[in-house]
């Protein structure tokens, strides 16, 4: 390693002390770019929907590569440079947050600093284990979709003007952090590790073919295993059943289409695998609590 970076402010892990406050939440779609060196006063989560990035850390000899479905965790203070490498672009969700609600951020430019202009009293704390190691990894391969959904809900609450939105935002972030603690401290079984590459490839294919029907039987055939064994493997790696995963993936894609395009509701339903508008609207409302039309009006028309 080129340098021995030490986190300036640390605390022993105590999830009861987490009081996350979000300072910035944005969906981004960016063409390839080299990025610039920076450090954070707070922390950042970055989920990659499509494309890829490379992150150069001051204490790592080689850059960290992340692809669609991966989650990046950036702790306070460490110098890094994010290189976006996806073609034609990389699409991601970035959430800046302070774990303990101690970092005062009024403007976006106050999120970052460079060598020579730091105010150490503003740098956030980062949790460590009993041995002094950081609790959170910097990269999580194939982040569980439930965790991603909580990130999206936190972003929506951050931008919403309705009452108690800040409380909802904090609640969703606490769910995200609790899930990350679980992922960080619970090792995967050897069986899951043996199938991980093929399961990740399957997940990538699912993201690109949501308009097709995906049954447990046909998915299991991709791995050449029995249907029951496939379901167990899938749940061990992703934390939920294959069909719930596919439904969640379709729901996330539907929300992006509703916010980012002018496609008709019926067309969006077809794009994410529903051949009937009534069925799409029913399933969407079951997941989101409101209809696709209401969601588009609320979060595109004035709520986000």
Averaged pLDDT: 88
Low-confidence regions: none
Outline: globular
Q: How is the CATH topology of the largest domain named? A: Jelly Rolls
CATH class placement of the largest domain:
Mainly Beta
Give a verbal description of the structure.
With 304 residues, the protein is of the alpha+beta class. The chain has two domains: 10-185, Jelly Rolls (Sandwich), CATH 2.60.120.10; 193-301, Orthogonal Bundle (Arc Repressor Mutant, subunit A), CATH 1.10.10. Helices cover 40% and strands 19% of the residues. It has helices at 145-159, 165-185, 190-208, 216-223, 227-238, 242-260, 265-271, 277-288, 292-301, and strands at residues 10-12, 21-30, 39-40, 43-50, 52-57, 64-67, 71-74, 80-84, 90-98, 112-113, 126-128, 139-140. A five-stranded antiparallel beta sheet has the order 2-9-4-7-12, covered by helices on one side. It has a three-stranded antiparallel beta sheet with strand order 6-5-8, with no helix packed on it. Strands 1-11 form a two-stranded parallel ribbon. It is globular, with a radius of gyration of 20 Å.
SSE layout and pairings?
Elements: E1 10-12, E2 21-30, E3 39-40, E4 43-50, E5 52-57, E6 64-67, E7 71-74, E8 80-84, E9 90-98, E10 112-113, E11 126-128, E12 139-140, H1 145-159, H2 165-185, H3 190-208, H4 216-223, H5 227-238, H6 242-260, H7 265-271, H8 277-288, H9 292-301
Parallel strand pairs: 1-11
Antiparallel strand pairs: 2-9, 3-10, 4-7, 4-9, 5-6, 5-8, 7-12
Helix pairs in contact: 1-2, 3-5, 4-5, 6-9
Name its key features:
9 helices; 3-stranded antiparallel β-sheet; 2 domains; 19% strand; single chain; 12 strands; 304 residues; Arc Repressor Mutant, subunit A; 5-stranded antiparallel β-sheet; alpha+beta; Jelly Rolls
